UniProtKB/TrEMBL annotation:
This protein's name: DNA-binding transcriptional regulator, XRE-family HTH domain
PROSITE patterns: HTH_CROC1
Domain named HTH cro/C1-type: residues: 7-61
Keywords: DNA-binding
PANTHER family per the UniProt record, alphabetical: HTH-TYPE TRANSCRIPTIONAL REGULATOR XRE, TRACRIPTIONAL REGULATORY PROTEIN-RELATED-RELATED
Superkingdom of this protein's organism: Bacteria
MF GO annotations: DNA binding
Any matching Pfam family: DUF5680
InterPro entries recorded: Cro/C1-type_HTH, DUF5680, Lambda_DNA-bd_dom_sf
Presence of the UniProt keyword DNA damage in the record: no
């Protein structure tokens, strides 16, 4: 399947119009239309954005071969299998750090620990530090660890606003259940997040700008545990 055809299939299966896809990526509708007609090709930054949006590796996205349909189906099945876990993860994130939830007893000296549970699912976020921090989020199902994400970040300049970060993290999308949305703006602040890989194995980077100046950055990575 060629890229132009693959893009149409992915867009329609996600229920997106050309206008909505263009808005998410940050291009014109005409650009999306030309991609789908095979009249032009996205640049590298737009390919990365499309790859992230549809949870498909760059290689699978741009490669034309007969095995692609099988790989495509496997990618979809993998995401569908994790749907319940991802839904729970997003609720847990919104109820803990992002929602300024109460901290549990520290599990390590000077650590900040936040817990959230629903039925067989348990979420724990444990981190150290403040202006410079490192931590881990993890999920358990029926007492067994099934997924984790490590992160490390820092404030790099004056102008950082913790409330803006909480606001961003409270908008964690189902499509990228790691930190915040790919792009978010509010007043003088802007947030950008790049993710490579899928829920089972991924890495990413987020940053915040204030009036065009970078004030915060964080790197994260993780995946399934078994």
């Amino acid at each position: 399947m060629k890229f132009q055809d693959k893009l149409q299939v992915l867009r329609k299966e996600k229920g997106l119009s050309q206008e909505k896809l263009a808005e998410i990526i940050g291009v014109s509708r005409q650009a999306v239309a030309k991609w789908e007609l095979g009249q032009s090709y996205p640049d590298m930054l737009n390919l990365i954005a499309i790859s992230q949006l549809f949870h498909m590796s760059m290689d699978r996205l741009v490669k034309d071969n007969e095995d692609e349909n099988c790989q495509f189906d496997q990618t979809k099945k993998s995401f569908q299998t994790n749907n319940d876990l991802i839904d729970f993860l997003c609720r847990a994130k919104k109820s803990t750090y992002a929602g300024k939830g109460a901290e549990a007893l520290p599990s390590r000296p000077m650590s900040h620990d936040l817990h959230y549970s629903e039925g067989p699912y348990t979420y724990i976020d444990s981190y150290l530090g403040g202006e410079k921090f490192a931590g881990e989020e993890a999920l358990w199902w029926d007492g067994q660890p099934v997924w984790s994400m490590n992160y490390v970040g820092r404030i790099v300049a004056d102008g950082f606003n913790g409330d803006f970060l909480n606001e961003v993290l409270s908008l964690v999308p189902i499509e990228y259940p790691y930190r915040g949305p790919l792009v978010y703006y509010n007043g003088d602040f802007s947030y950008h997040c790049i993710v490579n890989g899928m829920f089972e194995w991924f890495h990413g980077y987020e940053e915040i700008f204030c009036k065009g100046n970078k004030v915060y950055e964080c790197m994260f990575h993780g995946g399934n545990i078994k």
